[in-house]
Specification:
The protein is α+β, with helices and mostly antiparallel strands. It contains 4 helices and 3 strands. The protein has 2 domains: 43 residues, no CATH class; 59 residues, no CATH class.
């Protein structure tokens, strides 16, 4: 059970750009400190433009593009799920790998396909 106000109000302190908040639990009717939450104070959400720019930089790297195309083709030859293989090889989410594969198809590194039917 977490303990909160009014028994133990959360005490948040700020230091050097970090916000620290203790996490208390009630043990044998005595509050016990079990951890802290540490967050940067200036957490500003990235704009859509910044996210698109970062995505473009990641997807534009010729070595990553060649690796993704090769991994996709090898996975397809082995009967594996090729987009999942790209995600695993490049350390990205499957949705990001799907977008990456779509970009590779658009740029001619992979042939066009019908949704749900992998082609390399």
């Amino acid at each position: 059970m977490s303990v909160s106000a009014p028994f133990l109000p959360p005490v948040t302190t700020s230091r050097d750009g970090w916000r620290v908040t203790p996490i208390w639990r009630l043990g044998d009717d005595v509050p016990v400190l079990v951890g802290v939450t540490i967050l940067a104070e200036d957490l500003t959400p990235l704009s859509r433009q910044t996210l698109d720019q970062l995505r473009g930089e990641i997807f534009a790297d010729p070595d990553r593009r060649a690796l993704a195309a090769a991994v996709y083709k090898q996975a397809l030859d082995r009967g594996e799920r090729p987009t999942q293989a790209v995600a695993d090889a490049l350390g990205m989410a499957v949705t990001s790998a799907y977008n990456f594969v779509t970009d590779l198809r658009r740029d001619g590194l992979l042939p066009p396909t019908t949704p749900g039917k992998a082609v390399a």
